[in-house]
Structure formats: structure tokens, C-alpha cells
Amino acid sequence: MRSFVCLALAAVLLAGCGGRSAVVSRAAPVTYPAFADAEPHDNVGQLPSYYPVHGVDVSRYQGDVNWRQARAGGISFAYMKATEGGDLADPMFHTYRAGAAAAGVRHGAYHFYYFCRTPQEQAAWFIANVPRDPAALPPVLDMEWNHQSRSCNRKPSGAQVRAEATVFLDILERHYGKRPLVYTTPDFYWDTALGQLPRTQFWLRSVAAHPSERYPGEGWAFWQYTGTGIVPGIARPVDINAFAGSHAQWKAWIE
User: Fold this and answer.
1) What's the rounded Cα separation, in Å, for the pair 244 and 4?
2) How many CB atoms lie within 10 A of CB 72?
């Protein structure tokens, strides 16, 4: 399986980083700025504070964001929802994008996949709404089961999901010159065997445990460790994510 970088939290986690990750060991624990959580999980605890680079992902539901305050509070990057399916665009995307850029927060865009549109349609819709920006983070394809959808209750096979994801990722890579990451959840990952996707870096949701427990053997670039985070400058609870490596590895990854 693909992997990126796993930061060693403690000896017990070394075996759980998985894949072909480069392990960065520490002689003693070093903690980094931590954020409050409206609904913390005991199994996560202080684990995110062992990672030095943190960011948020936002959509219109977060409302107004003071990006300078968020950056001063420890936010290094932000992913913003840009599009969904083949005809929905987040009305706050361009506002967030401009605000983050002005505050010096590295930013990128994500697309929420809809199983009743072709990957070609959805890739074209994303490209129509997200400008090319050499400074932007790689695009993200968000794939998860959407049990609340009233317009599309399809649940394709794992083989079809992987085939459609590959088409979408290839189109965006050709257009933006960067291979998109894939965001997913534990149930979707295992239901569809998403780990079989080639050349893929993952952004993994795991709010009740470290990713090594929910996705054993899989590497990751980003870990979404809470959906109820409290971040300066963002009035409503927000998803917070940790990058898998050191400050130096983050710098190399974004260049």
C-alpha cells in the first residue's frame, strides 16, 4: 500500500504507521500546540499534539473565518470545500481562499464525490470552479458514503468506486499538475478496498483513535482527528487535521 510519512508518537505506535513510511523517531516526547475540542475522545487524547503541523478543513457551515487569528493560533493550512457532484459549488470557497491567502495560510480545495454523476462530469465541474494556482495544496477527492442524500442512494461496488476515483484523479492531475489526495472514512475505506488505489496519498478520518488502529497497514499524509475542534478565529466547531511529518517534511511536501 502507499504511504507517506509517519511520525513516531511512542514505541507502541511504531508498528502501526504501516506501508513504506519513513519513521521519525524521538528520544523523548516533544509536544506541539494543541487545540480544544468540544467533544474529545479518550482514545485520541494527546496524540495529535505530537504532530507539529495542523490545519483545518472548512465549508460554508463554518461561516465567517478570521484567517489571521487562526494562523496566529497555530493553523498552518486549510482545505476548503469547492464543489460537490456535478452542479453544486460551495458559496464560501472563494471568500475562504482569498482570506487564507492574505493571511499566509497554505490552502487547497476538495471535491465531495457524488455517486450519481460520472467522474468526468465531476472533474469538469471542479476544474470550472477551482483555478490553477501553483501555490495551492494538491486537490482532494472526498469519498465517503452519504447516507443522508435524498437524491442519490447508490452504493457502488468497490471495483466501481476505485475505477471512478482513478478517472477523476487522473483528470485533475493532468489539469493541475499535482496528483490529488483522497480523503475517506474507515467504513468507506474497508467497504471499497480503497487502499488498492495506485499512487495515492490518503487523508484519513479517525476521530476515535489513531489511524494506525482504524487503518492498519495504511500510510497517510493527513489525519482528521476531530470534527468538533475549537480554533481561534473560527466561531463554530471545525474539523482539525494533522500532517504526518515534521516541519521540514511539511516544507518539502508543499514545495
Assistant:
1) 8
2) 12
Q: How far is CA 216 from CA 75, 138, 186, in A?
A: 28, 25, 11
pLDDT per residue as tens digits for the range 25-47: 344 557 788 899 999 999 999 99
Query: Residue 234 carries which DSSP code?
Result: B
What single DSSP character describes residue 247? H
Q: Would you say 204 and 223 are in contact if contact means Cβ atoms under 8 Å apart?
A: yes
Cα–Cα distance measured from residue 186 to residue 184, given in angstroms and rounded to the nearest whole number: 7
Domains annotated for the chain, with CATH where assigned, are 35-254 (3.20.20.80)
Please state, in angstroms and rounded to a whole number, the distance separating the CA atoms of residues 21 and 92: 35
Q: Which DSSP string do the residues of 29-69 spell out, in sequence order? A: -------EESS--TTTTTGGGG-S-EEEEE-GGG-SB-HHH
Q: What amino acid positions are annotated as catalytic residues?
A: 57, 142, 144
The Cα–Cα gap between 246 and 5 comes to: 9
Q: Are 119 and 165 in contact (CB under 8 A)?
A: yes
Instruction: For residue range 84-129, list pLDDT tens digits in order.
Output: 999 999 999 999 999 999 999 999 999 999 999 999 999 999 999 9
Region of residue 85 (phi > 0: left; psi between -120 and 50: alpha; otherwise: beta): left
CB atoms under 10 Å from CB of 194, counted, come to 21
pTM of the model: 0.90
164 Cβ contact list (under 8 Å, min separation 6): 113, 118, 119, 156
The SS3 assignment for 89 reads strand
Classify each residue of 170-185 as buried b or exposed e, where b means 16 or more C-beta atoms within 10 Å of its C-beta.
ebbeeebeeebbbbbb
